[in-house]
Specification:
The chain has helices at residues 14-27, 46-53, 68-78, 97-107, and strands at 4-10, 33-40, 58-62, 83-87. The chain has 116 residues and is an alpha/beta fold. It has a four-stranded parallel beta sheet, with helices on both faces. It starts with a strand and ends in a 9-residue tail after the last helix. The relative contact order is 0.26.
């Protein structure tokens, strides 16, 4: 079972997205997770960068900009995690942050959402 599904919506954020994905790869430990990048018709090479540098990421490359909510919904329909986080591409994940959030949710079944 996957602990966490991570959805990142991107539009022309290649450099920021690369840093965000690196931080996930390097700093998330002790969780099973999957990452979705939904690209909203970027023209800066973002989808190609994801495919080349992050083959473990599930890339959804839209032909038009569908907006933030619709793009996240595309990933949410495919997500297998017990929990889902919507992560912006300008985010740098700190070591232990996502693990702490999952532990909180596991310990508080009455909670429907959490933010960091």
């Amino acid at each position: 079972m996957i602990d966490l599904s991570i959805s990142i919506v991107s539009w022309n954020t290649k450099s920021l997205l690369r840093d965000c994905l690196r931080s996930v790869r390097e700093r998330v430990e002790g969780l099973s997770y999957e990452v979705f990048v939904v690209d909203n018709a970027s023209t800066d090479g973002s989808p190609e960068m994801v495919g080349k540098e992050f083959p473990e990421v599930r890339l959804i490359a839209n032909e038009q900009n569908r907006g933030f909510a619709a793009a996240n919904n595309q990933a949410l329909r495919l997500a297998q995690g017990r929990y889902v986080i919507l992560l912006n591409p300008d985010t740098h994940v700190h070591r232990g942050a996502l693990e702490t959030m999952v532990r909180f949710m596991d310990g508080h079944p009455e909670a429907g959402a959490v933010g960091c």
